[in-house]
Amino acid sequence: MPLVIISHGYGGWYFGHHDTAEALADSGFVVVAINHPYANYADMSRENGQAALVNRSIDIDRTIDFILTAFPDSARIDPQRIGVYGFLQGGYIWLILAGANPDFSKLPPRCADPKVVGCPQSGQPRPFRHAHCPKF
After folding, report:
1. Which terminal CB of the chain, N or C, has fewer other CB atoms within 10 Å?
2. Burial of 5 (0-12, 13-18, 19+ CB in 10 A)
């Protein structure tokens, strides 16, 4: 069976696209929607920093690994037919997983106060660890 992973946007949650998930499941897809920690409707504690962007790719890669190996029906999942659904931060992360390499040095500062968690110090480079996913 084909697999679709749903990644919510900024401040969203795993149930935010339930109508799309239901339609996909009714059409024969296995659908997994995850809640990204620290950047969801209930916890926005790290929404302003790069961690929200970096950790999303790790969340999804681990989710795919679980579904393909430890999920009770993993043998029924076709690893060659993994799809994605997301927009905003949820859509951005699929580009990263597929191999995109964003250059954050081209972005303006995300906040005026460098003391705020997640804000780069003035003049310092913005490190980014790409977590590309070979499953795509």
Report:
1. N
2. buried
Q: What is the pLDDT of residue 126?
A: 47
The set of residues, in sequence order, having a beta carbon less than 8 Å from that of 98 and lying 6+ positions away, is: 132, 133, 136
pLDDT in tens, 83-123: 888 877 777 777 877 788 777 667 666 566 656 555 554 44
Tell me the whole-structure pTM to 2 decimals.
0.73
Give me the mean pLDDT over the 41-45 stretch: 81
Going by C-alpha positions, the residue among 135, 110, 115 that lies closest to residue 126 is 110
Nearest to 118, CA basis, from 59, 56, 45, 60: 45
Tell me the CA distances in angstroms from 124 to 83, 105, 114, 127, 128, one per residue in order: 36, 10, 10, 9, 13
Burial class (CB in 10 A: 0-12, 13-18, 19+), 105: exposed
State the Cα–Cα distance between residues 30 and 129, nearest whole angstrom. Answer: 29
Task: Please tell me what DSSP assigns to residue 120.
Answer: P
CB contact at 8 A, 35 and 14: yes
